[in-house]
Every structure is written in C-alpha cells, then in structure tokens.
Write a structure and sequence with these properties.
The protein is an all-alpha fold and 139 residues long. It has one domain. 49% of the residues lie in helices and 0% in strands. The longest helix is centred in the middle third of the chain and has 16 residues. The protein starts with 20 loop residues before the first helix and ends with a helix. The model has no long low-confidence stretch (mean pLDDT 81).
Length: 139
C-alpha cells in the first residue's frame, strides 16, 4: 500500500489482518469514491466520500467517520460530518476509562487539530440547540 499524506491530511491505511470485514467494506467504498469526486479541495472530497459511503452501507455518517479515523484518517475539522464532530467533542470531555472516552486515534486527531490551530477554544462545550422540536414537526 502507498501512503497518501499532505501537510494536513493523511488518508486511512488499514492493515488487512487487523481490520474487521465491516471496516474493510467502509474503507474500500470510501477510497473508491474518493477518486470520483469532481472537486479539487481534498477536504470536500473526504466529506463527500464519507457521506457517500454511509449512504451506500446504510450506516450513519458519524459511524463511518469514526471507523475511518480508527484506520488512520487525519484531516481538518471541515472534512468531517457534524454528527462526528459532536461525537468527538463529547468524547474528548471524558477522560481515561470512562464509558464513551476517546480512543487513541481520536486523541491523535485532536492533537493534529490543536497543532494546526483548527480547534476553536471551548469547542467541547458548544452545543446545538434546535429551535423546532421533532414532536412539533410530526403533528
């Protein structure tokens, strides 16, 4: 395998022996779609490929992004779906052995964001408040 790396982005490089079949399926669909996205910005290609992979496999964007990060994907925050950013921000508020604590791959991604100064101050404490609740929409 070859390593695709720029100064800000490293694409995933799973070792076949240490990857589950589900992760391998996510990886192959993601890398296959990366070539076909007609955009010059790599961040947008990654986001589009994550969303495409999630739609094709009928899983959430956050789960797809988490699997790719665990396989080595490192990219700026703009390259990830909002659901994954919410998940990782909440995980980074936990520590050590807590349930829902960040993995070592998430910590490495966070360190990259802090190194590149892409992590806004107090981003772990931001929360989206929805104005319209779902029960209002369903009636």
């Amino acid at each position: 395998m070859f390593k695709i790396e720029t100064d800000k982005i490293t694409l995933p490089q799973p070792e076949r022996a240490h990857v589950t079949p589900e992760q391998w399926n996510i990886y192959t669909r993601f890398m296959g779609h990366m070539r076909h996205v007609p955009v010059s910005r790599v961040e947008i290609k990654i986001l589009s490929a994550i969303q495409f992979t999630a739609d094709m496999l009928d899983i959430s964007d956050a789960h797809t992004a988490k699997a790719l990060v665990e396989m080595g994907l490192r990219a700026p925050r703009i390259a990830f779906p909002v659901e994954f950013l919410d998940y990782i921000d909440n995980a980074l508020m936990r520590c050590g052995w807590d349930i829902g604590a960040p993995s070592k791959e998430m910590m490495a991604l966070r360190d990259q964001w802090f190194t590149r100064q892409e992590q806004p101050n107090f981003s772990s404490f931001r929360h989206v408040h929805h104005i319209i609740k779902e029960d209002v929409l369903s009636s």
